[in-house]
Every structure is written in structure tokens, then in C-alpha cells.
Amino acid sequence: MDVDTKLKLYDDYITKDESFYRRNFFAINTLSSVLHVKYPNNEKVETRYAYHLIRAGELDKALGIFKRLAHSPQTENPKEAIMTVMSIEGHLGHADSVRHYLDLAIERLPNDTELYIQKAYYLAEEGDNQQAEEYFQRAIEVAPDPIAKSNAYTALADHTSEFKKSKKLYRKALEYNPNNASALNNWAYFAALLGENLPLSLEMSTRACEIEPTNATYLDTKAWILYLMGRYKEAKKVMQQAISLDTTNDSTLLLHYGDILVANQEAFLAEIYYKRAAEAGEDEAVIRKRLEALKKQFSQGSQEYI
């Protein structure tokens, strides 16, 4: 068999499921090692072998392979190797190495929109907002198609702290891709927080939810807009969906649900969700303020509170 046929068979084995991989770990280890020895200069073989090493816990060996592939001018897919190096180095807490390989990725792939956006995020985290914005702009310039350009505009808008400016950028993103759910959701959420055109915010939020109906964050936005519009029962129904779909135990969603429950005169449940929000990491002062307001609104002996 030629090497591509062997790799296909190998892939069929290792991608069956996690339990199969665990049960046959040593056999798969032998297969990957044999392929590695027999085809030492084959990029596809090296990549698979390195991924197996990661699963075996041998990060240093895997890192060495991916670093070599990242720097080699013969590597056909340097981005995969570079991004994997960045992921491992990030996991190990090697921030300087992550930055080095991100710069290497941009050097080798100067027209990759995602890389400029990622670089911009790193710069923003370091507090260099001016240079971060330059990289966001560069991402927009090199974007190869309307979808990529829309995503780049959305990333810049998310980074922009001034809503009037970010609102224009979200609009620009939607000109390139009217179905950009992130742009729809974020425009709707920030506009709603400022009390600007709640009906339009609800329309845009609803569109985002239709595009990604299982996105808990987008459902939270829709529920919160309904809450701000005084449509409390509808808000509760949508927020229940958001809570059930959320896998991150997001404190903001729990806090919002507590507020919506208060508006629906369900103080007992509201207290439970406020406390859950606190356990999930919400600011203690915020929770304390909510609970104090709750007790003022509902006396301890009232039927509503019980």
C-alpha cells in the first residue's frame, strides 16, 4: 500500500471514538511509531504522530515536531503546525513563545485574516489598543471574501469601546454579510443597554437567534431586550432556553434570569438564581445589592416571596 492508503486506514482506526482509542492505545502507538520511522519526511505522517504524542502526554516531543514543521519552508500547511505550537505553548504558559509563533505565522501567511485578528487580540490584552486597531484594520484589508471581511469588521467593533463607532462597524459587517449572527447580536445588545431603538434591537436579536438557535448568549440578549421592553413573560420563556443550553455556567445569564424572575413576581426563584450567579463568579457587591432590593420589594412573610 502507498502511504496515503496507510494513512487513511490509520485515520479510520483512530477516529472511531475515544473509548476505541483508549482500548487499543498500544496498538495505535505501534502503528504511529512505525509510520514515523518509515516515512520520516512526510508531513502528514509527522503531524499524525505528533498528535498521538499529545494524547500520550508527551508534549515536549510533539512540540519539537510541530516547531520543526512550523519553521520548515517545505511544510505545505504551516498554519496548522504553528497554531498547534501556539496552543501547546499557551497551555504551558509560555507567552513569549506564543507571540513569536504568531508573528511567524503572519510572516509566512501574510494574507490570513484570522491571524491578524488574533494578533490584535493579543495586543489589546497587553493594553496596546492603538496597535491592536491597526492589526484589525489590516485584517479587514486582506480579507479575501465578504464573509471574512464581515468577521474582521465585527472583531474591530467588539474591540471598540465607543458604541457610536462600533455601531457603524457592526453595520458595515452586516453590509458584507447580513447573516453575521455575532454582529446582529452584539449590535442589538449594546443598543439595548443604551436604550436605543428597542424594537429594532429585538428584530436584530431575533435574527441572530434564528441563525444560531442553540446559542445561549444570543438567547440571553433576546431575553434581556424583552425584559427591557417590559415583556416579562416572553423574556422568562426565552431565558429558560438560554439557561438550559448554557454549558459554561455563565454568571451573567444567571443574573439576568434572576432579574427577569423578579419582574415576574417570582422572588423565591430569583433569590436562588442570584445565589447561583454569585457561585458562578458574579461580583459579590452586585449580588448583595440585588438581594437587598429583593427583600425590600417582597416582605419575608408575603405569599409572593414564599
Polypeptide structure, described:
There is one protein chain. It contains 18 helices and no strands. It is mainly alpha-helical and 306 residues long. The longest helix has 15 residues, at 78-92. Mean pLDDT is 91; it is low at 301-306.
What's the shape?
A: globular
Assign a percent range to the helix content: over 70%
End-to-end Cα distance, whole Å, is: 73 Å
Radius of gyration: 25 Å
Strand fraction equals under 5%
| Average of the residue pLDDT scores | 91
Give me the secondary-structure category. mainly alpha
Q: Please describe the biggest sheet, giving its number of strands, its sense, and whether it closes into a barrel.
A: none
Number of strands: 0
The secondary-structure element order is HHHHHHHHHHHHHHHHHH
Q: How many alpha or pi helices?
A: 18
Would you identify the regions where 5 or more consecutive residues have pLDDT less than 50? 301-306
